[in-house]
């Protein structure tokens, strides 16, 4: 039987000694993170969530001592501290993944303490930037040399979805037609592509992106051959500096639409520009209105 080469133990395998996995932090470092690094592109997001929200509370605890009640109390404390339910649920999902893997290793004989913990009900909320807020945000982004800042500027100037910008390739940019051809990443996307119209300002941002010769991506990630996966850390720091703590990345898309409507553009045209609803697939001849967000700012 051929020998299996792996540095990551599989469920059912024994550790060399009980001291190998003394607490949750040890399990995360020795098992969970090595495992997801090769399976999950967004593993840096999991790692940030663990370091920021899980380790300070549960990191030095033996996994078998964790109880459902304290997990529920911790989750509700996060919400009471101001985190949005969607953010709390994402943190809980990472915790559940860790515990599920630990069950497979026999480290939680009583089952996962997270298994029956219910996700928080999401609040339906609308948040759009005011013109003053948008100007302050754009000015701060223009001062930053970070590639995350360039990506956020494009999000605000195009109304595109985050993944549509982060996964864009240079070959998808048509400077002559002022279009960015992207795969539809909306909830009802069917695999087809749509054209995102580019204003003069958006074209200028793309031209300002440093181009790496061996990468097809507008925004290359740290891992070779991969696009930039996580801009949340940069965004979270920036929004707190600007006093925009309640503004999410997806609110930039909503703000783009709101500015166009306030400038007198028809809802149907705005819908096509956003690639949403029945008019999801924007015709290539559609142009960003001259009186839209860039001019208003």
TrEMBL record:
Gene3D superfamilies: 1.10.150.130, Intergrase catalytic core (1.10.443.10). Residues 124-297 form the Tyr recombinase domain. SUPFAM superfamilies: DNA breaking-rejoining enzymes. InterPro entries: DNA_brk_join_enz, Integrase-like_cat_sf, Integrase_catalytic, Integrase_recombinase_N, Phage_Integrase. The keyword DNA-binding applies. GO terms for molecular function: DNA binding. Keywords: DNA integration, DNA recombination, DNA-binding. Pfam families: Phage_integrase (PF00589). GO terms for biological process: DNA integration; DNA recombination. PROSITE patterns: TYR_RECOMBINASE. Belongs to the 'phage' integrase family. This is Site-specific integrase. It comes from Candidatus Mailhella merdigallinarum.
